[in-house]
Design a protein that fits this description.
four-stranded antiparallel sheet, single chain, mainly beta, 10% helix, 492 residues, DDB1 and CUL4 associated factor 17, 6 helices
Length: 492
Amino acid sequence: CGAAPRAPNVCRLLGRRACGFYARDAGVALRNNMGLLRTILCQESTKFKNVWTTHSASPIAYERGRIYLDNYRCCISSIAQEPRILYQKPKCSKSEKIEDALLLECPLGEMLPNPSDYKPSLIVLTVQNWLLRLSADCGEILEKVYLAGSCCKFRYLSWDAPQEVMVVKSAQNKLPAEARQAGIQQSVLFHLAVFQVLPLSFIGMLEINKKIFGNNVTDVAISNGILIVMYSVGLVRLYNFQAITEKFMEQPFDLGCEFNWNGQVGIVGKYPFGLPCNIKITDTPPLLFEASTLENAFQIGGFPWHYIITPNKKKHRGVFYICSLKDNALAKNGIQDMKCCSLEPDWIYFHPDMSGRIIHVGPNLIKVLKLKEVENTDQNEIVEDFIIMANRENCVNSSVTVTSSGRVVKKRLNLLDDDPEQETFKIVDYEDELDLLSTVAVTEIGADGRAHLDLRCNEHGILLKSIPLLESWDVVRSIPFFCLYKLLNPRK
């Protein structure tokens, strides 16, 4: 007997389920909606209109439909038809100035202790070492954690694991000039405090001591469970942070609990005690990996794992080596050099879409590269996936020109690759939900710079839509400036 006329293809259904697609799961509706939005954005009849513009004396930040002005004191929603102020906190003294901020969003599949935890919130770090969690909708203070006294100045927030583990880093500790002249030595260079977020909980605080890590440490970070230490000589060293925590954690502490630490009695995270430095690294941890690279430029990504460095010599500036993390072997065609002559350097990074590809951006050229296995070997080859070229068809860069009278004029200097009169790439970004690669290219016309935003297929680089930006690029880049474009309903 034959199958029912509308019966699904069982093999195809099982194949889609193996890839994580289910007919009734919430992700199907989201993917369909994002697909429709992408189609609407890129169709020819869709127009964009400038609906709101603002200037600011301080930097402007944007996160998930919220525009932050006045050093995060003013929050404006950009989701409504007309931008509206969500909250505006009163002016504060310099001691209450916000140094850095991160947006927190509710984790999926977890029970949280407070109803407010299910709504977005903003973690901010103040000059006086206070870590505050604010409601993203009204600015109300939901939690307060005091980090430390005057022994260190915390200045930076970053993610170890996005929306899971947060790192608060101090500025580099430096002794006053009088103390240095007196011969007093400063051994502790940085402090790092690590938190689990939503609910906010304290994991531990550690010191980066030059007696353990060396005298030439210039910076430090924690990312994806790796402690990264950078040196002035161009050396980058990687350590397993989880192994460090397990080996050197002296005692765990919970926020809000009483403690007796080194003769001090107080409450964890409360003024004036703050947080105990409970991860004491007493000897050098096992080294996972190290690389010598110019200006500490080091990236890991791809599949299988590779890393990108610039050899630690000034003559190699602008040259990138792509090597296997497994055995440090240079990939075939792994030396990438655009040989461009420009004021602004080209840049390279692993594609944020987790495809393992690499994006290399120059003044007039964007290369999307991918790793490909070389047959019958363990080596990988770097091949071009696609290329995006700037529109320079009408630009003639000849060293010899002939005037109308027939006189031959020779130019003494050739144009730079990023000459302002030529179209030059300034921004390359990836929109993950719509799977679009966006580029901004700029050409200076007279005294102004004109720019256009191009939306491209992320898989093949095909141009789907070009949107001219009406504002002068010189204005956009010289002062804090924010312009909001809204999608107009396309005519049928």
